[in-house]
Design brief:
The protein is an alpha/beta fold and 304 residues long. The protein has a single domain, classed as Protein of unknown function UPF0759 (TIM Barrel, Alpha-Beta Barrel). The protein is 33% helix and 14% strand. The chain contains 10 helices and 8 strands. It has an 8-stranded parallel sheet with strand order 3-2-1-8-7-6-5-4. Helix 9 packs across helix 10 (269-283).
Length: 304
Amino acid sequence: MKFGKVHDVSNIDFSMPQHPASTIRVLNKTKITIQTPQLYVGCTGWSMKEWVGKTYPKGAKSKDFLKYYGKQFNTIELNTTHYRIPTFETIEKWKESVPNDFRFCPKIPQSISHSANMGISDGKMEIFCDAILGLGEQLGCCFMQLPPYFKVDRLGLLEVFLEKFPKQIPLAVEIRNEEWFSNTKNGNAFFDLLEQHQISTVITDVAGRRDVLHQRLTTNTAMIRFVGNGLHPTDYSRIDDWMQVLKHWLAEGLKTVYFFPHEPDNILAPEMAKYVVDQMNAVLKLEVRGPNFEASGDNQMSLF
């Protein structure tokens, strides 16, 4: 993930901004609902040969990577769908490879999110949605990453898209253009639109763009994309700060969290994910399934 990356983080202010009052208002809407919060932590792909021998067992074959990934994590930021719409056969193979508690979070194809009409009139949105609905109960929350050139003047187009997007598919939206954050009115217009349509926000924690760490929730689901810096000490302190934020949000009514740690080239993402899961279990007092590197060795494969 190149967006917002910097070479030197020594002068970055990583302090967590305060969440706006609207976030608590949104969470309080469903606070009285009795429901165990669901927390999901995962990476951005499974095709990492560098993970063999630690995250995956020694000698693991690429055809089995998703199976081993599903044993180690309970969700995935499914970036492959950003580049192509999967076939129904592919969807079935994915489902068969992972446990029942696993959730796929497909990324809206760039042929939709980055197009002039957002797939509204060419049928691509319908084709994509029909495909991912095949994931059934293993469908988590889709997310749409709008391009940096998606500015305020296109808010009306986004509104039309959200009106047509199937209500049964959970969706979160990420914005990047600085216009949304440099003007409070612009940002409020976007967030209010998402809240109106029960669409979640994507919160991105990255060194070079602290404005996208907006802390604004529009549903009781939080999708957090955390961009680390090669397991730099600040990666860990930032996660510690996130635990306090999540602890507060959970107390106020947060129901679902999708947390996706990114690290350079994705190689160290499992290590960061493990720290996130360990802290969730320790600080939030919730049982979250996450990586067990010791169980990926040959002598431990019976655990799978």
